[in-house]
Amino acid sequence: MLNNQDLLLAISGMMDDKLEKKLEQKLIQSEQRLEIKLKLAMEQTLEEKLEEKLEQKLDRKLEEKLDRKLEEKLEEKLEASTSYMWTEYEMTFSTALELKKEEYQSAPQVRKRIDELKARIKGLGNINVNSIEDYKEVSERYEFMKTQYEDLTQAQAELEKIIEELDMGMRRQFQEKFAEIRAEFDKVFRELFGGGRGTLELMEDEDILEAGIQIIAQPPGKKLQNMMQLSGGEKALTAISLLFAIQNLKPSPFCLLDEIEAALDDSNVDRFAGYLHKLIKNTQFIVITHRRGTMMAADRLYGITMQEKGVSTLVSVNLIADDLEN
C-alpha cells in the first residue's frame, strides 16, 4: 500500500504532467496566434506595399497623361502663335527670336508694347499694302538718280574747272596775239599807205573775250581817226592791211580774195599787188579781180568768155612762162 507521501508524490506528478501538457498546449496556441498575427501583419504590409506601388503607378500614369496633355496644349499654343505671327506680320518664329529684345522680359510689358504699337499703327490711317515694294522701287530709283546726280555734279565741276582753265588760257593767248597783230598791223599799214600809223584798241569796261575792237588809222598827212571816218579806198586798204598782218603771223596754205581792191586807186592797187607777192612763199592766192594792176602782178590768169551764145569757154594764160620765153 502506498502511503500518503507516495500518494502525494504520484498526484503531484500527475498534476505536473497535466500542467505541462496544458502549458504546452497554451504555448502551441500562443505560437499559433503569433504566427497568425505575423501572417496577418505580413499580409497587411504586402497589401500596403501593393497599394503604395499601385498608387505610385497610377500617379506616374496620371502625371504622364497630364504631361502629354500639357505638351499637346503647348504645341497647339505654339502652332497657333506661329500661325498668328505669320498671318499678322508675315514673320517666322526664328525671325521673331532674332528680333527679340532683352528689355521686354515679362508678358505684361510685351502686351503693353504691342498695344502701343497697334495704337500707333492705327493712328497712321489707311495702310498701303504695297508700300514696301513701292518703297523698294522708289529707293532703287532714288539711288540711281542720286548716283547720276553726283556724276553730273562731278562732271559739271570738272567742266567748270576746264572752262576756267581754257578761259584763262584764251585770255592770255588773246592778249599775246592781239599785241602781236597790233604791232604787225602798224607795220603793214605803213608799207601799204607809204607812211602813217595804224593801231587796234579794245573797247573799255568790257570782258576781254567779248569786247569790241576799234581800228584806228592815220593815213599820211591826216589826223588819227576812227576807221568809220575814212574814205572808201582808205577803209578798203586798212582792212587789207589787217588781213595781211594776220596772214604774216599765221599764214594759211590757201586764200581766196574776191575784189577786195576794187575801191583802191591805181597806185594803191600796185602797192597791194606788190605786197601780195611777198606772201606767196607760204600761201597760194586766188584773186577775183577786174583791176589791171592786180592782173599784171598775177602768175596765171583764168578767164571765162562766151564766144557762142550759151557756151562758156575757159581761157588761161601762164604769165610766168611768157616772161621766161621773153
Major sheet description: 3 strands, antiparallel
* Global shape: rod-shaped
SSE run: HHHHEEEHEHEHEEH
Quaternary structure classification: single chain
Computed over alpha carbons, the radius of gyration is: 68 Å
Q: Helix content range of the residues, please?
A: 55-70%
Strand content: 5-15%
Number of strands: 7
Name the strands of the widest sheet in spatial order. Answer: 1-2-3
H/I helix tally: 8
Give the end-to-end Cα distance, rounded to a whole number of Å. Answer: 229 Å
Overall pLDDT metric: 82
Q: What structural class results from the helix and strand content?
A: alpha+beta
pLDDT below 50 for ≥5 consecutive residues: which ranges?
none
Which short descriptors sum up this protein?
326 residues, alpha+beta, 3-stranded antiparallel beta sheet, 13% strand, rod-shaped
Task: Please give a structural write-up.
This protein is of the alpha+beta class and 326 residues long. It is built from 8 helices and 7 strands. It has helices spanning 4-89, 93-98, 107-123, 131-193, 232-249, 266-278, 292-297, 319-325; strands spanning 197-202, 213-218, 225-226, 254-258, 284-288, 300-308, 311-318. Strands 1-2-3 form a 3-stranded antiparallel sheet. A two-stranded parallel ribbon has the order 4-5. A two-stranded antiparallel sheet has the order 6-7. A hairpin with a 6-residue loop joins strand 2 (213-218) and strand 3 (225-226). Helix 4 crosses helix 5 (232-249). It is rod-shaped, with a radius of gyration of 68 Å. It starts with a helix and ends with a helix. The mean pLDDT is 82.
